[in-house]
Structures are given as C-alpha cells and as structure tokens.
From TrEMBL:
Domain Asparagine synthetase, residue spans: 105-237, 248-354
Pfam families hit by this protein: Asn_synthase (PF00733)
Lineage: superkingdom: Archaea
Gene Ontology molecular functions: asparagine synthase (glutamine-hydrolyzing) activity; ATP binding
Organism: Halorientalis regularis
The name this protein goes by in its record: Asparagine synthase (Glutamine-hydrolysing)
GO biological process: asparagine biosynthetic process
Record key words, sorted: ATP-binding, Nucleotide-binding
Amino acid sequence: MIHGADPTTVRAALDGGGPLPGTRGFAGRLDAEDGAPRLVRDVLGRYPCFTEADDHTTWSFDPRDLTDPAPVPAGHVRTQSGDEQVWTLPDPPATDDDAAAIEAVRAAVAASTAAVDAESLAVAFSGGVDSAILAARLDAPLYVAGFPDSHDVDAARSAAAAMDRDLTVVELTHEDIERAVPELVRATGRANAMDVGIALPLYLVAEQVAADGYDRLAVGQGADELFGGYAKVAKAPDDPRVDAETVRGARREVVTTLPDQLERDVLALRAAGVEPVPPLLDDRVVEAALPLPGTLLVADPKPGADRGDAERKVALRRAAEPWLPETVAGRDKKAVQYGSLVSRELDRLARQAGYKRRMDDHVTKYVRSLVE
C-alpha cells in the first residue's frame, strides 16, 4: 500500500526514474519483484512511514500503531536487513537567467495548484505569500488560528480583505492548549516545546476545518525551505545556525530538515481529522526552486542594512505577482508558533503552573506534565 502516488510511478522511480518523479511525495509498502517486503519513502519525506525498531516487517503510517516506532528515512528503502538510500535531492547549478527562473517557478506553482482537487478542501491561511498563493489559486475556504491579538490573525484578516475573500478565524484559548497538547504529543510522539509550539496552531485550525465538514487542508509547507524564507539563510555565512558559506548552501541545508518537520506536521493534521495537501512541495515546484541563484532567494540588502532584513523568497514573490495584490505578495510573516502567539501562551501557562523560566527547558517540562 502506497500513500501519495501510484505504485507504477514509484517502481519507475526505483528503477532509475529519479528522485522527483512528478508527485507530492509518497511512502508505504512496495514489495520487490521477488515478493520480498520493502518500504519506501520519497526523497523529501513528504509522507511519514514507520516500522517497529526491531522488526522491519511490522509497519504503519501511524506510529501509535507500533510499540517502538522507527521512521523510514527519506529517500530510502527499508527491508528486514536494513535501510538503503536510493534517492538524493538533485543539486543543479544556479541558473543565470533570472527572468526564465521566475517564469519556471510561476509555471510550476500554476501547474501544481491546478492539479489540486478542491472538493472538501480548506486552506490554512496566515496572510503571508505562501498561503496567499494557495488562496488565490484554489477555490476553497480560508482558515487561520491564533490568539485574538496575534499577528497571524491580523495579517490573515487584512490579506483576506485585500483579496476579497471570506475568512474563518479560530480564536484560541488557554483551554484549547491544555486540551490539545496531550492529544498532539500522543499523535506525534514529540513533547519538546518547539515542536509542540509549531504543531499546535496547525492541529487546532485543522480541528475546526474537520468540524466544518472538510477532510483536506491545503498548507504552504516547504516554501520557506525551498525559496529562502529564513533569516538564518539570508545571513549565511554569518549566522551560527547554519554551517553553509553561501545563501544557496544554507537553503539546501534547511531543505534537509524537511523530512523531520513534515513527519510532525502530517501526523498532527491527520490526528485532527484532515489530510494535508502541500502544493508548494510538488515535485514540479521543487525542480523549479533548486536552480535558483542566491539573489532570487534573498535580495541584496540596502546599503548599511542588516542582511537578515533583506527581502526573502524573491523568486516566489515575483512569480506570485500576477495572482496577488502587491501588499500581499511583498508581505513578511512570522513563524507560526510566534505569529499565532501559541509559544507566548505556552510559556505563560507553564509559569502559572510553577515551571519558571529559571528552570531548564521549563515549557517542555510543562508539556510533559500535561501528558502525564
């Protein structure tokens, strides 16, 4: 059983068809020609898949089904004898034709979104360029989650108004956090403060989407990694959070973190009752993003300005200009855990429960107390 692609496509990729065979990712069981069981996971890990750590024939898409789940690594085949890497992400040289590169991104995004079936679909909408592209290209209702005074709620409202779209706001409360944290930790197997802070807004918006009768949620995952959306990429090589010496190298470095992030996000959304749909992680978009030069990831900063403040995701913003109002195409966004104020309120609840900031990793200790 394969999630995300038909078995014929995956077999062709295994037979030398390459790591980007025209899907939005895949994972599952695809036995060898001799009938030997084997599990596969695509090169970016867009679908999670697990086995028992000591028994690679017992497997599931949901780690809660297993006693000691071990994820299949991205780009690998897992058999009873171990893991074999069969795909690596392409590393093409930087293109020197900016106009053609932007047009390639535009064409890839247009094709990937056109291929999405909008039936029973909603869009996770933060007001940033990633989710705004999905809102402009998909005929589906928009949802945002955050505390009432949060950046994400304000940004989503103003962007939806600029795009003349209705928006459903899921206003979060402390009670939502206290209820959802144990559910989320059980679903993802993660209790650290960072993972919980990122996944909580996704989980809570997805709960409302499911309650309203939709079973699929379009998300903008991958755009920051592929198109240079992080300050640490913009500031390479001067940011200690990356090892690379160039913007392009730093971009590739953060792309390699996608499998771990996507595992968390997919499991969180499924636990809330929806299946994620990530058009900006379509193979066509990945292929268009990888050759971008550093200047189409991060613009040169103004004289005297900090490089971290330079315009980021340049090619994606230029590609989106025909679809979005200028104010939306050029808008920056905050990371979801901060833009929704979930991290702030998790910290507040932890301190109210006696887990003070002087304690090491006090929010994670609070999260674990909720689970226990």
